Amino acid sequence: MMAAAEAFASSRGWPVVIAVYDSAGLLKLLHRLDQSNLAAIELAQRKAATAVKFRRPTKAFEEILAGGGVRILSIASEVVALEGGVPLFENGAVVGSIGVSGMSSPEDGEVAAAGVLAMDPAAG
């Protein structure tokens, strides 16, 4: 999964940070591609943490906020409302998450999706 996400980002010249979390919300892997910005290190981890804790993609929170759902701000310290964090499911259970940061939110989401697709081809 990590290799697929890295290959996808590298093929586009996107300097991102990719974080993979386990089902308990703990960091398992962190890769920082050359020239990625330093803030992306923390943000990729926070996206992965949000996805695993809430069992939904961070894009869902971004859409809620964009749609005027300001109540999401009441849990803002726990939520990153930017695309790029995706929970990982196996047999209906969350087994971890992937978080990507360094580019625009949609591009981060594409990198995360490439990683998820490598883990679960049915997800595509």
Polypeptide structure, described:
- The chain is of the alpha+beta class and 124 residues long.
- It contains four helices and four strands; from the N terminus they run αββααββα.
- It has a four-stranded antiparallel beta sheet.
- Helix 1 crosses helix 4.
- It is globular, with a radius of gyration of 13 Å.
- The two termini are 14 Å apart.
Helix content: 40-55%
Shape: globular
User: Class, according to the CATH hierarchy?
Assistant: Alpha Beta
CATH architecture: 2-Layer Sandwich
Key features?
single chain, 124 residues, alpha+beta, Beta-Lactamase, four-stranded antiparallel beta sheet, 4 helices, 22% strand
Describe how the helices and strands are arranged.
Blueprint: H1 2-12, E1 17-22, E2 27-32, H2 39-54, H3 58-66, E3 85-90, E4 93-101, H4 105-119
Antiparallel strand pairs: 1-2, 1-4, 3-4
Structure described in brief:
The chain is of the alpha+beta class and 124 residues long.
